[in-house]
Amino acid sequence: MLDPPKSEEVLVRIIATGICHTDLVARDYVMGSPNFPVILGHEGSGIIESVGEDVHHLKVGDHVVLSYGFCGECEICRNGTPQYCYEFFTRNFSGGRVDGSHSHHYHDGKAINDNFFSQSSFATYAIAHKNNVIAVPKDAPLELLGPLGCGLQTGAGAIINSLRVRVGSSVIITGTGAVGLAALMAAKATSATTIIAVDINDERLAFAMELGATHTINSLSENVSQRILEILPKGVQYAVDTTGRNEVINSVLSSMRPTGEMICIGVAQKPLALETNIFLTKGYKIKFINQGDSVSAEFIPKLIKMYQNGQFPFDKLIKKYSFEDINQAVEDSEKGRTIKSVLLIGEYGN
Question: DSSP 3-state helix, strand, coil percentages of the chain (rounded to 5)?
Fold first, then answer.
């Protein structure tokens, strides 16, 4: 059973939701995931069916994308960085609201862990907090928009918000999954002139070229550092790593130009070890980011407008699955057959 929304919440009929790597690591009890049973899903899109009495910027019938949860009141949030909210873990990974309550219950009243990213969108309906519900244009394809709430805003935000890549810059992106390819498309949209994609899959690298990469490196068969310096003898200016792998990160760092900047996104499976001797005279900056340093209510509408203008063709990454085929969608994501799986859950008319 699903309870009605509280005063600062909305009830959303889910139209579609993306499958993100974070859903899979939560399933595998990585990153302090909530105990099972739990309703996962955090890239939902849908239509508002009801709103709480303290929700004033959203209304019934709005098309919305659901993103990450944050309190909106601490000094971190007030400083414009809600993705680092003091309550981020509680509101996104604890398996319930901040007060410990739940929206979902069995018929006998026993609670089900939920509120994953303040939404739990692997469901036909979701209760979400007003802070992480973003109204979107009704002329945009709602069934495709959910991944903007996490994976795609993370990659694009790394380029646009975190690195602030300038016209004519050089960028290297390691890993060509959904996050990496979102970063690549954003790099092209910002008019970076050298965009290098690194992966171990030649098909993915060929696709990266279609999306705007100027060069590719297969790290299984080529020396990454050597190839970077062949392409850019003075080194690469900006880097986005989505692999979390020590050897990949260090190979890129050793080939960056002085004052180069790297963004790290990938969930590492072991502690990060850096060859710090290469930093001493280089002035490198390494930053670990969450959600692409994005304020979703501002950034997601911008990405939609870029998509509508042909500057951010994220639909090319998406393969749609029916909700009952969720296991196949997950398998295809894990085996690399699909870049971004999207589950079609509900129907709507434009």
Answer: 35, 25, 45
